[in-house]
Amino acid sequence: DCCAPGVVPRPAGGSSRRQAVPLFRALSDPTRVEILALIASRPDAICVCDVVAHFDLKQPTISHHLRVLRKAGLVGVTRRGTWAYYALDVRGIEALRRAVDLVVPGHATATATP
């Protein structure tokens, strides 16, 4: 016997999995992960011009990535004059934590060991 039988978790309901897919899909691109991390690192909303300045990409490409993150519910946008300001959407981040918990139950906030 190579290992003791473990507890096999029950699969999550179909609707829970369907809700998790757009979140994971939004984070499947390294640029979007970096954009989300940049937004998360700020205590206040960040202007789109500052996001663009952080990357070696053109504004339409950054806008596309921001739109994907917004559609997934991970960030929200507010307008101030002609500028758009982005901030984390707390509900989306909580949904992401639940989605991770679907895949790795009980480990949504776990840290990796070396």
Radius of gyration: 17 Å
Amount of beta strand: 5-15%
Low-confidence stretches: none
Taking the alpha carbons of the first and last residues, their distance comes to 27 Å
Approximate helicity band: 40-55%
Order of strands, widest sheet: 1-3-2
**What sequence of helices (H) and strands (E) makes up the elements?**
HHEHHEEH
Biggest β-sheet description: 3 strands, antiparallel
Structural class: alpha+beta
Key attributes of the depicted protein:
alpha+beta; 114 residues; 12% strand; single chain
Overview of the structural elements:
This protein has five helices and three strands. With 114 residues, it is of the alpha+beta class. Helix 1 packs across helix 5 and helix 2 packs across helix 4. The two termini are 27 Å apart.
Helix-strand blueprint:
Blueprint: H1 14-26, H2 30-40, E1 46-47, H3 48-54, H4 59-71, E2 75-80, E3 83-88, H5 90-103
Antiparallel strand pairs: 1-3, 2-3
Give a short synopsis of this structure.
The protein has helices spanning 14-26, 30-40, 48-54, 59-71, 90-103, and strands at 46-47, 75-80, 83-88. It is an alpha+beta fold and 114 residues long.
